[in-house]
C-alpha cells in the first residue's frame, strides 16, 4: 500500500485538524463500494503515534477517521487521543462509526470527559433500497430521523451506480434538515467492482456543488483526498 497522508488542517465549514488513523479492522467490511478497510496493520499504534504528535490544538476541534469505526481503534491510540485532546485544549472531538455501533456511542464518548464528542455515520443514502443494493448494513427501517438521534453528522455517497439526480438532491436536502454536518462524497473508482455514474458525477460537479459551496455544514469531496488525507 502506498504511503498515506494522515494529517491535515481544514479551513472550510468546519475548521479543524483532521487525522486519518489506523484501526484494528472494520467489523463490517461488506459495503459494496468500499476497500477502505484494507488500511490495517499488526501495530496500528506505531502508525498513529506520529500522526497524533502533529496535533497543535489550533482550532480546538479534532476530527479523527480510521479504517472502520472509532470503536475499532486500539487502547493505546484511544489513550493518546485523550491525552492529546486534554494537553492541546481540544474542546470538540469528531469520530466516525458504522450504524452497528449506534448503541455504543455514549459509552465511547465517556472516554473523553473533557471534550464534546460528536459522531458521523456513513449512511451513504437515505434510500433503503439503495442501501440494500450497496450492502450498507443499515436496516431499511432506519430513517434519517433515527440516525440523527445518535449521530450529529452523516456522509453521503454521490454519483454511484443506481442513483438518480432526484434521489441525490433528496438525500442532500434530508441531510441538511437533520444533521449539523454532512459530507458529500463523489464515488472514486477503486479496487471493488462498484461503478461510478460519470454522467451524474459531471452533473453534480458542475450544477450542484457550486450552489452548495457555501452551504452551512456541508463539505463536498469531488475526490476522496480533497480534505488533505488519504
UniProtKB/TrEMBL annotation:
This protein's name: Radical SAM protein
Origin superkingdom: Bacteria
Amino acid at each position: 500500500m502506498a504511503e498515506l497522508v494522515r494529517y491535515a488542517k481544514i479551513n472550510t465549514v468546519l475548521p479543524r485538524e483532521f487525522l486519518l488513523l489506523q484501526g484494528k479492522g472494520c467489523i463490517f467490511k461488506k459495503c459494496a463500494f468500499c476497500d477502505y478497510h484494507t488500511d490495517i496493520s499488526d501495530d496500528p499504534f506505531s502508525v498513529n503515534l506520529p500522526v497524533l504528535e502533529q496535533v497543535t490544538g489550533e482550532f480546538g476541534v479534532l476530527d479523527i477517521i480510521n479504517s472502520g469505526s472509532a470503536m475499532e481503534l486500539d487502547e493505546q491510540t484511544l489513550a493518546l487521543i485523550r491525552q492529546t485532546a486534554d494537553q492541546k485544549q481540544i474542546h470538540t472531538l469528531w469520530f466516525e462509526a458504522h450504524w452497528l455501533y449506534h448503541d455504543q456511542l455514549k459509552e465511547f464518548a465517556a472516554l473523553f470527559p473533557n471534550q464534546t464528542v460528536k459522531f458521523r455515520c456513513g449512511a451513504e443514502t437515505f434510500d433503503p433500497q439503495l442501501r440494500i443494493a450497496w450492502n450498507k448494513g443499515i436496516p431499511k427501517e432506519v430513517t434519517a430521523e433515527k440516525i440523527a438521534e445518535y449521530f450529529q453528522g452523516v456522509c453521503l455517497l454521490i454519483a454511484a451506480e443506481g442513483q438518480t439526480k432526484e434521489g441525490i438532491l433528496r438525500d442532500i436536502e434530508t441531510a441538511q434538515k437533520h444533521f449539523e454536518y454532512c459530507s458529500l462524497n463523489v464515488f472514486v473508482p477503486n479496487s471493488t467492482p462498484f461503478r461510478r455514474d460519470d454522467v451524474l458525477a459531471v452533473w453534480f460537479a458542475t450544477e450542484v456543488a457550486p450552489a452548495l459551496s457555501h452551504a452551512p455544514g456541508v463539505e463536498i469531496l469531488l475526490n476522496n483526498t480533497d480534505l488533505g488525507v488519504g
